[in-house]
Amino acid sequence: MKLFLIGLFSGIIGGMGIGGGTILIPALTIIMGVEQHTAQSVNLLSFIPTAVIALIYHLKKRNIKYSILPLIITGGIIGSLVGANIAIVTKAILLKKIFAILLFSIGIYEILSKPRK
């Protein structure tokens, strides 16, 4: 039941475009005791079907700006190759700390940033 609820909440957040990994990875490591590398791998695999479903809805609502896709996709592919190689050679405890710092920094930024018009 815990895994289902973790998946449900991460799917909701992912479908909103926020990124289900912000819920999934901490929940798997803290609640379920899964090792950081494994949690990140599970996140990547679970992202595929949830992203497809969310994409279908966003396509129907015409929420996609196609002109920016080529550069974002190219950068994402290169970044994922680099990031995966870095993650493989990084110890789990350091990887967990880096992820925590990233989430904390994003949270602080969101709290302090002014709304856009």
The H-and-E topology, N to C, reads as HHHHH
> Roughly what fraction of the amino acids lie in strands?
under 5%
Biggest sheet layout: none
The figure for the number of domains is 1
First-last Cα distance: 41 Å
Question: What is the count of helical runs?
Answer: 5
Unreliable stretches (pLDDT < 50, length at least 5) are none
Subcellular location: Cell membrane; Membrane
Keywords: Cell membrane, Membrane, Transmembrane, Transmembrane helix
Main location: membrane
InterPro entries: TM_pro_TauE-like (IPR002781), TSUP/Inactive_protease-like (IPR051598)
Overview of this structure, please?
The protein has 117 residues and is mainly alpha-helical. The chain has one domain. The chain contains 5 helices and no strands. It has helices at 2-15, 21-31, 36-60, 69-89, 92-112. Helix 1 (2-15) runs antiparallel to helix 2 (21-31), helix 1 packs across helix 3 (36-60) and helix 2 (21-31) packs antiparallel against helix 3 (36-60). The longest helix has 25 residues, at 36-60. The termini are far apart. The chain crosses the membrane at residues 12-34, 40-59, 66-88, 94-112. This is Probable membrane transporter protein.
